[in-house]
Design a protein that fits this description.
The protein is 18% helix and 33% strand. It is of the alpha+beta class and 181 residues long. It has one domain: Sandwich (Jelly Rolls).
Length: 181
């Protein structure tokens, strides 16, 4: 059985950040849907400049996200993290993101707006090949190894789902840096 560090935890200030983030996201310049013909992402800013720190929504989120990630690192005894890419995606009715993986050590998804019955991220168990759904709620951040095959299933509701996702690398702490036998 393979186990790996996965965490789902609510961002501490989600309730006070949500409307500010959505307002900033809704005025962000978009990029074309570059995810291929099997995908239908309504709005997204993934692409060139995907770690542009001057984006308004990222400036709003930056402090709280940094604090969240520092706590996450402690529990798994990681020393540092480096976010290489961060972007938002929005899914209106009939939007989806097909099965895929990411680069870097870890991928995270922050469920900024997850109304009603909008679909949650699904992932494939590498042993059984079965699809599973992450147990998340609005405001949660799920972090998992980037090689995990996952997707955003088709949104069959009339509600818009908004996520913020990022890819990051980590380095281990001295806890793991012991002499080999």
């Amino acid at each position: 059985m393979i186990t790996f560090p996965v965490e789902s935890k609510k961002l501490k200030n989600h309730d006070s950040l949500k409307e500010k983030l959505l307002s900033a996201i809704n005025t962000t310049t978009l990029v074309e849907n570059i995810f291929g013909p099997n995908n239908n992402i309504t709005r997204c800013d993934w692409g060139p400049g995907r770690f542009d720190p001057t984006r308004e929504w990222l400036q709003i989120l930056q402090f709280d996200l940094n604090e969240h990630l520092k706590e996450w690192m402690k529990q798994f005894k990681y020393e540092t993290f480096t976010i290489h890419e961060i972007w938002f995606q929005q899914y209106a009715k009939d939007a989806k993101h097909s099965w895929h993986v990411h680069g870097c050590n870890f991928t995270s998804v922050y469920y900024l707006d997850l109304p009603g019955e909008t679909p949650k991220t699904q992932w494939v168990d590498p042993i059984t090949g079965k699809a599973n759904t992450f147990d998340v709620s609005e405001g949660d951040i799920i972090t998992f190894p980037s090689w995990t095959v996952h997707r955003a299933p088709t949104n069959e509701t009339d509600d818009m789902k908004t996520i913020i996702s990022w890819n990051m690398d980590v380095d281990i702490s001295d806890f793991y840096k012991v002499e080999d036998d």
